[in-house]
Design a protein that fits this description.
about 350 residues
């Protein structure tokens, strides 16, 4: 038996061209299976990414350190910012209550904070250096009550006006300071709490080492997360590991193989004619494999382009790892179909040549 690769390639191309409607149906079904699988993977990954981003924005990687009946070292807290994996760290110390000349008799909580604490509560907030007359940071609720804005001036009762250096929007990460007047102080002295935000990857290890970092007093420090992960109803890691789409490539490959077998069933006489003319069964499988490769190659390319284009049209970002996940699943399904389709189609041509030719 002598393989004539060029002849098989030409014959496969002619078969696809001569039976354009049949080829188009297989191509469209395969493209829909591959593209649908890729799009589902993109949607699942995008949904989990949005949840992770929302979790981080809500303070999911923030921890709070306190020491019962004993203050913390402010400098020690601020020094955490030099550690790898720490996004921001800062301390807070209550200083009583205060009222303002524009609302006499209305009391607001006051506190001294370091700049790092403001960065934990509202990432990206900018507080300029205090001018000669001093400045405060107003919590969002207090600013609304007193009609304050960044750059305006206000006066504590019995004192000179001070600049409102910034309005703090900490509704998600620390809503209790929304009605506070905050003085930004240097990283020295004592503090009641130390707030620390970690990178996602460093969070667990960072929380485990915080107690040792502050182990300098007579009492053990208490470390607690801003909120526990189990307060959320979703576990992104487990959800990703158990996503149904992880087996989608098996379904896509099986569907492609099933459609190919159905197509081969209607070609029984044609396949029998090849055998009658001296084509070996191994060569027949090779011919079917080439036909499948040509169709599935176009289907995979078209399906993935459709999935990526649809995701982009929905105005969602397409990170490289998400694109790779969709590509890997789609290509896995295509390759499985490419392996199963010719072998399964060749089973249709089993038996005697005469029986196959009777179908003509």
């Amino acid at each position: 038996m002598r393989w004539r690769t060029a002849a098989l390639l030409r014959e496969a191309a002619l078969n696809l061209w001569a039976n354009g409607a049949r080829s188009a149906v297989i191509l469209l079904i395969a493209a829909a299976a591959v593209g649908g699988l890729g799009f589902l993977e993109l949607q699942q990954a995008d949904g989990l990414r949005e949840f992770q981003d929302d979790y981080a924005a809500a303070g999911g990687y923030v921890a709070i350190v306190t020491r019962p009946n004993e203050p913390l070292d402010t400098g020690r807290c601020e020094a955490l910012q030099e550690r790898d994996g720490v996004v921001a760290a800062g301390s807070i110390r209550g200083t009583g209550t205060v009222s303002f000349a524009s609302a006499p008799g209305v009391l607001f909580q006051s506190a001294a904070v370091t700049a790092g604490a403001l960065q934990v509560w509202q990432p990206g907030i900018h507080v300029p250096p205090a001018p000669e007359g001093g400045s405060i940071v107003a919590g969002g609720a207090m600013a609304s009550e007193l009609g304050l804005a960044t750059g305006s001036y206000t006066a504590r009762a019995g004192e000179e006006p001070v600049l409102v250096a910034a309005v703090l929007r900490a509704e998600r990460r620390n809503p209790q300071v929304q009605r506070w007047a905050l003085d930004v102080s240097p990283a020295a002295g004592e503090a009641a709490e130390c707030w620390v935000e970690f990178d996602r990857d460093a969070y667990r290890a960072g929380v485990d080492t915080l107690a040792a970092w502050f182990a300098t007093g007579t009492q053990e420090p208490v470390v607690r997360p801003y909120f526990r992960r189990d307060e959320f109803t979703r576990d992104p890691g487990r959800e990703f590991a158990q996503r149904p789409e992880r087996f989608g490539w098996l379904a896509a490959g099986g569907l492609i193989a099933a459609v190919s077998v159905l197509s081969a069933w209607f070609r029984r006489a044609e396949l029998g004619l090849y055998l009658a003319l001296g084509t070996a069964r191994s060569q027949l499988i090779g011919l079917l494999a080439i036909e499948s490769a040509l169709v599935l190659g176009l289907a995979a390319a078209g399906g993935l382009l459709w999935a990526f284009a649809l995701q982009a049209a929905m105005h969602h970002p397409l990170p490289a790892d998400h694109a790779w996940l969709a590509f890997r699943s789609a290509i896995s399904g295509t390759l499985l179909g490419l392996v199963l389709a010719p072998a399964a189609s060749a089973l249709v041509a089993r038996g005697s040549v005469a029986a196959l030719l009777k179908d003509r």
